């Protein structure tokens, strides 16, 4: 919105006495300036709205009055403070601030609008899941099959939309991998659609599984988002993308502004979510943020870079899959289910080993930064 308003004023002031006065508005043509504006706007809005959202959620009694997964598992001596009573659905704050800031500072192209719409859909799905947990006062929520179906349909729609649009069809038909400058497959529509669905659905659920400790999911999301802020800026710049030999995607530069808004909104939420948390993002936030990362990776033709940058998310998700599969296999074979980890997701395993919550979060941050550095290195190592 600010971009269009600034250009209108520049056009109206051209060759008039006001031309010199409105000339600074040319700054709005620069993605870097608008990205900074989006980040600051999202951060300030989060700080301003955060306390109000916390009070509002408490008044609605949208707090976690049921046992979380860690408490259900028992034996967590490091968990000093109970999570009960802390407002959940804090993802409403993140998504509201993110979308508003992006709409204010972005140029509205199909890539941006597709991302914003998808974030709202996933946030709505997460809100429904959180609402069921609160009203039923249990950790079950919506059926996993329902959530997977909604995520898969949305992801498939995104894949088909990109494939049918001539300007973006190669984002689906050509398959790119890190550390290699050329597509490893071309014209692979079925494979491309499968990768698109797996990237978005997998990322959305992986962030959701990581959301179990104060500040863990949002902090790791911020680190991965910074990686994609760099990638979107380069992918949207024809000169930089040609020099670094990565696919150029017209309009992807505006996703940099979206990433900046996501950073601002995430930092603002972390202000209230750091230990001891004043509110949780819930599935409302985790499904939306994870899905946003997956969509960004698809839109700039780098889905496998997300696997590297989001290594912590990948390990968390794999720990759940491995634990569940092994437990079911051993129970079917011997009658007694066995565990590989003390508890899954992996962050609870380390809690049961005696790590304090803040230790787990900080050490996972360090690992996430390491994954981010490796992901950024793919820009030059090809």
Secondary-structure blueprint:
Blueprint: H1 2-13, H2 19-22, H3 31-59, H4 69-73, H5 91-105, H6 110-136, H7 144-164, H8 170-173, H9 189-210, H10 216-235, H11 238-244, H12 253-273, H13 282-299, H14 303-309, H15 311-334, H16 346-352, H17 357-377
What does this structure look like?
- This protein is mostly helical and 382 residues long.
- The protein has one domain (31-377).
- It has 17 helices and no strands.
- The relative contact order is 0.15.
Quick overview:
This protein is mainly alpha-helical. Helices cover 69% and strands 0% of the residues. The protein has helices at 2-13, 19-22, 31-59, 69-73, 91-105, 110-136, 144-164, 170-173, 189-210, 216-235, 238-244, 253-273, 282-299, 303-309, 311-334, 346-352, 357-377.
């Amino acid at each position: 919105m600010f971009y269009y308003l600034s250009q209108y004023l520049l056009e109206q002031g051209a060759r008039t006495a006001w031309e010199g006065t409105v000339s600074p508005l040319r700054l709005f043509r620069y993605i870097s300036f608008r990205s900074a504006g989006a980040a600051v706007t999202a951060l300030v809005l989060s700080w301003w709205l955060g306390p109000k959202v916390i009070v509002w959620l408490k008044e609605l009694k949208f707090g976690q009055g049921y046992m979380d997964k860690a408490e259900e598992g028992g034996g967590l001596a490091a968990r000093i403070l109970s999570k009960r009573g802390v407002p959940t659905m804090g993802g409403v704050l993140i998504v509201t601030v993110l979308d508003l800031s992006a709409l204010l500072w972005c140029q509205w192209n199909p890539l941006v609008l597709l991302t914003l719409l998808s974030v709202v859909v996933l946030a709505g799905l997460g809100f429904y899941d959180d609402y069921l947990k609160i009203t039923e006062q249990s950790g079950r929520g919506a059926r996993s099959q329902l959530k997977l179906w909604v995520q898969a349909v949305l992801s498939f729609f995104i894949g088909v939309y990109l494939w049918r649009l001539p300007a973006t069809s190669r984002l689906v038909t050509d398959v790119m991998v890190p550390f290699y400058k050329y597509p490893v497959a071309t014209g692979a529509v079925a494979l491309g659609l499968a990768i698109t669905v797996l990237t978005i659905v997998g990322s959305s659920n992986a962030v959701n599984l990581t959301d179990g400790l104060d500040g863990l999911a949002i902090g790791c999301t911020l680190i991965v988002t910074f990686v994609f802020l760099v990638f979107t800026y380069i992918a949207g710049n024809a000169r930089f993308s040609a020099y670094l030999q990565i696919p150029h995607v017209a309009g992807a530069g505006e996703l940099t502004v979206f990433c900046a808004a996501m950073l601002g909104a995430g930092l603002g939420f972390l202000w209230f979510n750091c230990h001891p948390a004043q509110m949780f993002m819930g599935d409302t936030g985790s499904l939306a943020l994870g899905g946003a990362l997956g969509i960004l990776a698809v839109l700039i033709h780098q889905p496998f870079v997300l696997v590297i940058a989001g290594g912590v998310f990948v390990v968390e998700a794999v720990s759940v899959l491995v634990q569940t599969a092994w437990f079911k296999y051993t129970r079917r074979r011997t009658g007694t289910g066995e565990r590989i980890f003390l508890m899954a997701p992996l962050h609870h395993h380390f809690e049961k080993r005696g790590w304090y919550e803040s230790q787990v979060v900080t050490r996972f941050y360090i690992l996430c930064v390491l994954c981010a550095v490796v992901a950024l290195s793919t820009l030059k190592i090809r």
